[in-house]
Amino acid sequence: MTDRKQFPLGIFSPSGEFMLCGSRHASRSRPASVLPLAPLSRKPSADALRKLEHEHSLTNERESAAPCEQFRQGPVELTSFLRSSVGLIVFAVCLALAGCRTSSPSSPPAVVLNKVPAASPAPHGQAIAGQTGAIEGYATGMRPGQRIVIYSKADGRWNLQPPSGQSFTNIERNGRWQASTLLGIEYAALLVDSTYAPPIQTESLPSVGPGVAAEATAKGQGPAPDYPPPKTLTFSGYKWTTSTGPIFHAGSRNFFDPANVWVDRSGKLHLRISGSPGKWGAAEVKLNASLGYGTYRFQVEDTTHLEPSAVLTLITWDGVGTERNRRELDIELSRWGFVDNTNVHYVVQPYYIPANFVRFRVPPGVFTHSFRWEPGQVTFSTMAGSGGAGDRLINQHVFTSGIPTPAGQTVRISLYVFVRGQVPLQHQNEVVIDKFEYLP
Known about the structure:
The chain is mainly beta. It has 3 domains: 10-98, no CATH class; 110-219, Immunoglobulin-like, CATH 2.60.40; 232-439, Jelly Rolls. The chain has helices spanning 46-58, 61-73, 78-82, 85-98, and strands at residues 10-12, 18-20, 110-115, 132-140, 147-154, 157-161, 176-182, 186-192, 201-202, 212-219, 232-235, 238-242, 245-249, 252-256, 261-263, 269-273, 281-287, 294-300, 310-317, 320-321, 329-333, 344-348, 357-360, 367-374, 377-384, 393-399, 410-417, 429-439. Strands 11, 12, 13, 14, 17, 19, 21, 22, 23 and 27 form a 10-stranded mixed sheet that branches. The longest helix has 14 residues, at 85-98. The relative contact order is 0.10. Mean pLDDT is 80; it is low at 1-44, 52-79 and 97-103.
């Protein structure tokens, strides 16, 4: 049974017969349907085609759009229609406007990228302020009110485009859309509902589901940076995944190399800053599960040997959102680029709120840093040694303001370079995490 909602178009072949193109850009999951057509009784002459071209140039596009709309809504007697001059004129306009494409209201929604900009020319796929390019495509099977959302990937994250202003791109009646985007290494288009609120920045694109009808991605044109693949490892009974590529931390762009993370034979986690000045490689692991409320404990070997601009962080962090709503609870072990500075910070982000920040100094040695996350409050603690009942409490602080609720956050352990400090990093640095524990 032919699908009477989709309508094919025909063009003349050299033999004068029809070549049916159906829906050239049809939904990925459903091919175009084709209605059987009879060939024309004779091939049109060159004079006739020139006459049709002249008539077409005098035809108002608005007048010809209505029959095109009729094609989309249902079949007509195409063979007899195309045998007339007006029919051929309308066919030519429909071909130009619709691109030999139609959409069925019952077909699955789909979005396609026809054109994407070049890949970002910056090293490691960094974002370059002000450099933009055109991106365009089309959508099929969309419902009334649905629009397009554009993302560009740079510095390891997907960024909503444009960075400021209107975040939605309207879809034309023929399904086409076009927009402008900042350059990145990869681009994405999402077909979304009118009520959907897209995240401004995210590590992973939103999945197709509530609010998101379809999505498409494409690499930027031209050569793109070649990043080492991430790796998965087991530490303290949990699965972790390494970060790879350029990522911003604390206003500093670092290149994260999976080779800088490993677990030794005794089960301890090692993180290293490798390379040389100007070409440092950092280290990060992300827990493959979101744990929620409870106690998070990190037993860390001596960190007082770290250079002033080396930063070790033990945190919860949500890859979706902005820096103000990452569900971020931080234990930061660093002097933040100063020789004489405290070396431990407790933070409930955002850090610039005075009530969300506590700092102090620990001497050399092994310490267990922890936080107990509960509804409405979080208690940070630092104890000497393994943090047992007889170990000395170094510091403790209870925060009750701006406490986030659990959602998609995960534990992250990172060692990276703070590039804005007074004392630049000079040598490779390494830390060892003895153990991680979670207690509900």
